[in-house]
Design a protein that fits this description.
Distance between the termini: 90 Å
Number of domains: 2
Number of strands: 18
CATH topology of the largest domain: Rossmann fold
Shape: globular
Protein name: S-DNA-T family DNA segregation ATPase FtsK/SpoIIIE
InterPro entries: FtsK/SpoIIIE/SftA (IPR050206), FtsK_dom (IPR002543), P-loop_NTPase (IPR027417)
Keywords: ATP-binding, Nucleotide-binding
CATH architecture of the largest domain: 3-Layer(aba) Sandwich
Helix content: 25-40%
Organism: Pseudonocardia endophytica
CATH superfamily of the largest domain: P-loop containing nucleotide triphosphate hydrolases
Strand order of the largest sheet: 10-9-18-17-16-11-15-14-12-13
Structural class: alpha/beta
Number of helices: 15
Largest sheet: 10 strands, mixed
GO molecular function, one term: DNA binding
Length: 484
Amino acid sequence: MNKRSATLMTGPARTPVRRSHRPPGREWRALGWLLRHPLFLLHPALAVTLLVLVGPVATLAGYSVLAVLVVGWWRGHPASFDRHIGPHVRATWRRWTTYRGRRWASLLSDCGLTREHRHNGETLVPRVMRVRSSTPTIDTLLVRMVRGQDLTHWQEHAPVLAEALIAHRVAVSRARPGVVALVVERELPFDRVIPAPDIPASADEVDLSALEIGDNEHGEAFVISIVRGHRVVIGNTGSGKGSVMWGTLRACGPCIREGVVRVHMIDLKGGVETEQGAPLFTRYATTPEDALALLTDFRDAMKARQEWMRDNGLRSCTPSVETPVEMLMVDEMAMLTAYADRQITREALRLLAEIMTQGRASLFTVQGYLQEPTKDVLDVRELFTQRICLAVTAASHVDMALGDGARERGALADEIPCDARHAGIGFVIDAGSRLPIRFRAAYVSDEDIAELVARCTPRDADVIDLYPDNDGDQDGNGSVWGAS
């Protein structure tokens, strides 16, 4: 019997039975759609139930009050509305206006992404399973492909699909067997360079848990924290890592001047990019050997403060002149953790792991900057509590930097052009919603760094020894480790 024959053998005599090529009735397909979208019936059912139970006047009043509350929330507190409600409203609106029905089928047909059933001539349209709209400029779709399609087919048609959607870019990746994830970037939210933020007038105006270093795509200030955690910034050369670093120092400048924050800098690129700010640093290292010595002293100072905290019955410290934030900044971290002498890298990784697992309560924090986020380069990657991803070269680097599924949810950091026009643009994961938020770090020029040094170089002050049992080793700038 021909293997291509669409027959089944049934019964004792193995009588051939031909398969029917008629598609299921529209009523059954409509029922299946309703089962997949139960909320479509829930809202009308709720309205009818309220009409029967409380009457039309009370029902209309209830819906009116609800509408007023939603509009009031939207107008009165945009930040919380955009975080909790905005993504759901946008996703629902765009699903019904763009990603379903005849409009969606016609769009895919024009782009060559539909197929014709070879027996009954029915047009098979890939079905949108889920729509996310985590930001105003990015939609993420999960689409079930029809038979005869694969990931390569969709990737080849992505440019055409982007033009049809009037989108800036469409990225395609494989979500699971038979399902592709489409990231539709509708527009670029940053069309200009953001100037460096002003240096606060005094330390009292600085919130070390919310330092403003740029803007996010919602039009709000993009803030970072240098207390109670550690941060890593990942990006190619020219992606804007320097803007994040110097923007952080400008935002906390008065605290550096007053001794509330002390900066310990490791720059293994010979100090070329950080030498201008050297007066701001309590410790400064530009060679692997000096960097290892700095790390060792930094760890010992952390241990000394922990001992002092135990003696005084403290579970955590508050930033002050007596207990300053000790901030270790490592520029080009891979030179310390992967590319230096093997003995140095092994000891550096051990010290970094010890500091990052124990330094939170005692206000010892690590801020790392590197280009490649692989485990081979940064074995302690998972210990960083906040991760920032600027422009990178590979799609896999996005998930390595921000966590599994970050790119699928819209963090297209590998699609950011690495040029001056796009420097400082990147993604960070929102702590509340776990959705990627795009931001742009403010550009900090050489003149801005010179202003920072002139205004915020630490003042000469008497040394207060908080740890009388410590040996009081002096560092290279004449201050005592573990004291302020």
